[in-house]
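worker-03 picked up job from queue 'complexes'. Input manifest follows; two sequence lines, order preserved.
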Amino acid sequence: MRYFLFRMTVYAGLTVLGFCLFRVQVLEGGRFRRLSEQNRVRLIPLEAPRGRVFDSRGNLLATNRPSYDVVATPEDVTPEVFPRLATILQLSEKEVRRRMSAPREYPFAPALIKEDVPREVLFRIEEYKPELPGVFIQIAFLRYYPYQETASHLIGFIGKINSEEYQKLDRERYGFNSLIGRTGIEKIYDERLRGWRGGRQIEVNARGQLVRVLSEKLPEPGEDLRLTLDLDFQKKIMEFIKGKHASVAVMDLDSEGLIALASSPAFDPNVFVSPGRAQERLQFLRDVNAPLLDRGVSSAYPPGSVFKLVTALAALETGKITPNTRFFCPGTFRLKPGARPYHCWSQHGHGSINLYEALERSCNVYFYNVGSRLSPETIASYARELGLGERMRLDVTNIAPGLVPDSAWKRERFREKWYQGETLSFAIGQSYLLVSPLQVLRLTAIIAKNGVRVEPQLILEKNPSDESKKTAIHEENLKVIKKGMLQVVQSEYGTGQLARVDFGKLAAKTGTAQVPPPKTAHSWMTGFFPYDNPKIAFVVFVEHGGSGGITGAKIVKEMIQIWGENVAKVG
Amino acid sequence: MWRKWVKETHWPLVFSTLGLAAVGTMFIFSASYHDSGHYMSKHLFWMGAALGVLFLIPVMGYRTFLNISYLLYGVSLMLLAAVLVIGEQRLGAQRWLQIGPLLIQPSEFAKLATILALANFLGANHPWEKKWSVVLASAGITFLPLVLIAKQPDLGSAIMFVPLLAGLLFLWGMRRRFFILGGIIATVAAPLFWGFLKAYQKKRILVFLNPNLDPLGSGYTAIQSKIAVGSGGLLGKGYLAGTQSQLQFVPEHHTDFIFCVVGEEWGYAGTLFVLLLYSFLFRSAFQVMEHTTDVKAKLLVAGILAVLFAQIFVNIGMSFGLTPITGITLPLISYGGSSLVATTLALGIILSIHKERSIF
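worker-03 finished. Artifact:
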């Protein structure tokens, strides 16, 4: 009985196959024959619109605009089409042929002939459609950055994927001609910004024209992103650093979000996403001013006196000095009598001063004295504790890790021992030390938040760092540093008094980082505001800008005033 | 000696096998002569090995295989495990082992080893005693290789173990309530199983249910292969004259989708011919099954039949959209050395059962 059932199942199965094949091959055979003879099924990929990028107040920073593309299925195109299409599109016939035979994703995939054609061309194509078999119009999306240079480094731009990437990536999301984020937010958040591709299977007639849609999957648009950036604030900052090689970064201390991250000179990212602007692209790449470089993030410089904050903390923490330890500054410092002199910036000297005054006046000799009591390893370990010399987790491409040297590093790099004189330079932020402006901003933010480990954010949804995650530095020592920073601006002898504003107490530190002559020094200023209840931390950096107390402080003052007028009022 | 051999061989089974292998060889040539993969020479090598196996097994006798069935089963499990560790990766899955110049697919041999082990185990137990433990143990024997193969991932081959187990238990005489219970367990386990599937496997099943979901990917393959089969019409476009398959609209047309080429080039006449050859093969196997008195042998034939039938049904079905697209070969016709040799090994065992049947 069971044997019989088993046997019947097998024969019944084969019979079912036989009947189904009869239906498909004999009854419907004609239709499939027709479909196959001309290969009349076409697959038209539909790219998903990319997610948009907004600032914290809902201003559009990156969006899409429709582009009318002329495409053609080369298999359907007859020889007469080439000259006709060449005339309409004002291309050479050879060029039309070249684009028609470019490699494609699969047989019968449409080839892109010309992107973003004007309306008149569109109408002409439609008008001559009967004489242009295989040619049709497809709507695509072009990226558009309405505020051009304003946040160009941050947002970045997109570009066509290359064949290596195409081989590696998921075919459902990346097609042969898909666009992919190349720098900035566009690159880091490409996964989220890009949607899912769709496609349409269509049946065409012998002239390659649509008869009916067989099936369709609509593309799913990408996710929109909202940044912590304040566009108006960023715009104003960009205006007053225009023409300089400078960067300004401002962080909201509550959310740890960056409300401005400006770098000058900048570029118009639209140049990279619009067809036919290759010439301008090359210009940007060749420009000696390096407009593509994000000076706040992707480049590291000697910090100069700004680093005295770290040296002071290292000495306080290790008990080498107290806030009231006094050293006498005669204008020069020698490790041993008769040894090479190290100069203070003030040749007359600062006299006998304590730590607060040393920070306030940025006295080099005081910090030479401090440095001579510390090993390079101790300074380096505190620098690292405060986030220097390490890559940041921020969502920006090409983050410069900077460099915190110590004797082991020097042995490795130069096969030479570390000289004590180098510790002196290290203590005042010179020697081999390199930091990016954003690292300095984080350092200041850690001080302002009494030792909480800070990670600058760019996307609004992320939660600020855990308050309990603190650095190993004692709060009372941070208070000393904060007070010193207050005096830098508010005291009559302070190096940063040009930055003083009338609506609150500012705390900051200036830096004037020496570079090999004949170039002018880099100008730095970093701080937080207001002193009593800090809301923001900032860093200003001007490449070869001269004195930090002049060039830097002027920018800081202007920036704080704008923040007070625009951001603080609303927020 | 010679006359004895002629007398003891089940010629209808041999001829249907040879007929199918000949059709396979013709269409592997048709599907691959444009490619540069030297498929034809490799295929002929494997074909020689397969025919050797077909005639050698009856000389050795199927009982030898039953006696060492647990050993074979153990070895095949080890090979499957080795595939996961050191296997060759192709087309996103790790299914092959490189042994010298040969690339073998252990899952094909694991199927046969599992049939042997199950037949041996079930044949040694009477269905009316120790029901629970026997049913559970045979389920265990089946699921070990199934899970290892599903991990590769080769879901299609793994699924083939299910009709194998069901067919064997059914013929062994498992009580009806176990089937009902099994059905319930399967229904409950299905959602859990769904969670283990890879994204592309889920998609294939969803696309099978609704081809419009994915016109770009597997939906495209589905419709193109259906067009290929359908466009063959009654008599086909002629050997080597298929346009769909020759133009490579249908992927994997020398392995999984070879039936498309048959359907397109030989039309309904050709597909019906292939179906008839298969029926003839099955009829012969059923005859052998009827005439043997050895319970283990009966179960062995049943297991082989169940797997062959399931593979044929799923493979032919997927070429025109009756079943989901899975990477299952068409026995004796598709290109693939392991599949071919494993199939003739199984058929050789059936031939041997015929030879050693007791004659009353």
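worker-03 released lock.
The first helix of chain A runs from residue 2 to 27.
The interface with chain B takes residues 2-3, 5-7, 9-11, 13-14, 17-18, 20-22, 24-26, 28-33, 35-37, 39, 41, 43, 45, 107, 171-172, 197-201, 214-217 of chain A (CB under 8 Å).
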